[in-house]
Amino acid sequence: MQLSVTFRHMEPSEALKNYVQERTNRLTRYIDKPLEAQVALTVNKFRQIVDVVINANGIRIAGQEAHDDMYAAIDLVMDKIERQVKKYREKIRHHKPAAAGREIRWRRDIYGQESFEDDREPVVVKTENYFVKPMSIDEAAMQMDLSQQDFLVFNNALTQMVNVLYRRKDGNYGLIVPQSS
Predict the structure, then answer these.
(1) CA 158, chain centre distance (Å)
(2) Which residues of 94-119 are buried (b: 16+ CB within 10 A; e: fewer)?
(3) C-beta of residue 42 within 8 angstroms of C-beta of residue 8
(4) Measured between alpha carbons, how far is 153 from 162 in angstroms, rounded to an integer?
(5) What whole-number distance in Å separates Cα of residue 31 and Cα of residue 85?
(6) Is 160 helix (H, G, I), strand (E, B) or coil?
(7) CATH 3.90.228.20 is held by the domain 104-176
């Protein structure tokens, strides 16, 4: 994580910088990509102001808080940022990902049981479309943790092949990798 702490109208303090570093490191449990954070600590006549801007995962999260005590202002703004990150994480969990990079579209057809019993041609009763996003296996596992789905179809960023990650009954994950004959 890259952290930039700026002191305005005050003497630089290693203790404040370490405290900001500690509070910012807590965000890494919610965001797995490298973080880039800019923190500005400002002292006015009667109050202490903390401005925070965090760039991670292609998102920008900003917050500002003022208080009589600098440590309290840091706590308030980092709590605000943490709530925003949690909200973003929930949004990822409940929404389909936006189209990014090179994606492949897949379709799954579900056939009715009666079409197999009567020796008739199978009839499609439901079709689902999937957007296959390029990601690593670790990212796919994180996405599975965030979602309640039983499987995830993704384009493996290392091999450029479509893989399927699925949740096993024992709680672990399985990976399906296609092999050419």
Answers:
(1) 20
(2) eeeeeeeeebeeeeeeeeeeeeeeee
(3) yes
(4) 7
(5) 8
(6) coil
(7) no
Distance CA 130, CA 116 (A): 26
The CATH homologous superfamily for domain 2-94 is Ribosome hibernation promotion factor-like (3.30.160.100)
DSSP character at residue 52: E
CA angle 117, 121, 126 (to 5 degrees): 90
Find out whether 1 and 36 touch, Cβ atoms under 8 Å.
yes
Please check whether residue 154 is in contact with residue 140, taking contact to mean a CB–CB distance below 8 angstroms.
Answer: yes
Residue 63 in contact with residue 76, Cβ under 8 Å?
Answer: no
CA distance 95 to 143: 12
Measured distance CA(131)–CA(153) in Å, rounded? 8
pLDDT tens column, 31-66: 767 678 999 999 998 899 999 988 876 677 888 999
Among the listed residues 161, 160, 157, 126, the one whose alpha carbon sits nearest the alpha carbon of residue 140 = 157
Answer yes or no: are the C-beta atoms of 166 and 150 closer than 8 Å.
Answer: yes
Q: Record the tokens describing residue 105, joined without a space.
A: 């579209």
Residue ranges covered by each domain of the chain: 2-94, 104-176
Each residue's pLDDT tens digit, 125-154: 777 777 777 888 888 888 777 766 788 888
